[in-house]
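INTERNAL TRANSFER SHEET
From: sequence group
To: structure group
Subject: GTPase Der

Please process the attached sequence and return the structure record in the designated field. Keep the field labels unchanged so the import script can parse them.
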Amino acid sequence: MSNMVAIVGRPNVGKSTFFNRLVGTRDAIVDEFSGVTRDRHYGKTEWIGKEFSIIDTGGYVTGSDDVFEDEIRKQVQLAVEEADVIMFVVDTMTGITDMDNDVANLLRKQDRPVFVVANKADTNERKMDASEFYAMGLGEPYPISAMNGSGTGDLLDEVVAKFPKPQSDPDEEAEELPRISVVGRPNAGKSSFINALTGSDRNIVTPVSGTTRDSIDTHYKAYGFDFTLVDTAGLRKKSKVHDDLEFYSVMRSIRSIESSDVCILMIDAEEGFHSQDLNIFSLIAKNNKAVVILVNKWDLIEKDHQTAKKFEKLIRSRINPFDDVEIIFTSVLTKQRIHKSLDAAIRAYENRKRRIKTSPLNDYFQTVIAKQPPPALKGKYIKIKYVTQLPTKFPSFAFFANLPQYVKEPYKRFLENKLRDQFDFTGTPVRIFMRKK
Ligand code: GDP
Ligand code: GDP
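Return from structure group:
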């Protein structure tokens, strides 16, 4: 799991501008591949070789003016609970406001590292003004301009130095067992699902001491399954205070997703497929993790022989273009298809690890590309010479061509679909790169 940095602060200080500066280009590239809705408030970035997640809490503030302050207070509290480092953004053009002081009071009462980011310091004069924020009692302010980028490097040097955790990626760890997490909106049935798996027989589960604060993994071994359930403790001892906040469920989801190989995404059948469900799906895809979708509480749905088919079709249209995913209709209540869901999760895990040898890959694509070559652009013919799978933790493929920059997104998608037709990559994101040959 990578380290998490939260950006907090009142509205209009430049949080989202700053967020975009930090994750901007990289985020856009990732989105191009995942193809799904862009989550503008969460991204991954890297500074001097240290990768971290960054979340703009302001992006999740909703509600009218009167609930605003309360909402910001909640977000800050959550950021403090969940993030490793807090960046508190203030505005050198306005100076300290009452709301800044409110936020500062919250932040002083806890011991997570906080950086005061004095934004809009575009000029030398405003850089000087930044020292005013020293009065908030949160240490030396860092003058930056989110607009032109000045000052951000010095700030990030200090931020990454505060990371508590060594760089750890579930894929890098020696552990061979698949790491599976259960994610979804509040009330979808996640904890019931986990309890159904683990609660009945104490012998089949062993707690594994968590590497991070408040995460306790569980080793599940029974009925032919052998895997690690990620962060089940967090699910079982629910935070009633925060349960209603989308931001909270996003934070929890990010933590679970980043530390697993496969995510079981639970949807509440009675609620249908929400935009929040799509957001979580997109977080999974963005992190290149495998996924299985469970439509839970299927027992509550009045149905005929078409109902499941229609539901499935609707979900596929929403998650398009990454729709090569297993969708399973479950009832945790009646224990319907619980083991089938685990089977699908393991299959997705295997597919994510699948390696295709260069020779069958090229044999296949030679025919495919000969039949339907990339369309010529500006009178130039594009020749794809060969393809190879890259040594990444999830399936990614490099196609070598004379003019790689001329191969557009639709053709890349065509190549991905052809790849999926021939080899089993169900449940796993696949990335296609064009390289110069
Ligand atoms: P948020 O509500 O905290 O996310 O703030 P935004 O990122 O939406 O920015 C609020 C306003 O401040 C926008 O008009 C930005 O263009 C402006 N802004 C953000 N960063 C800077 C900066 O570094 N310098 C200046 N001059 N303006 C900025
Ligand atoms: P979580 O917030 O995602 O962990 O959801 P819970 O596991 O706490 O479940 C929320 C509510 O839905 C509880 O009252 C469960 O008993 C109920 N529930 C969970 N799964 C099912 C199901 O398959 N069928 C029905 N009818 N109720 C379910």
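Handover comment: The chain has 13 helices and 16 strands. The pocket of guanosine-5'-diphosphate (ligand 2) is lined by residues 184, 186-192, 235, 296-297, 299-300, 331-333 (CB under 6 Å).
Transfer complete.
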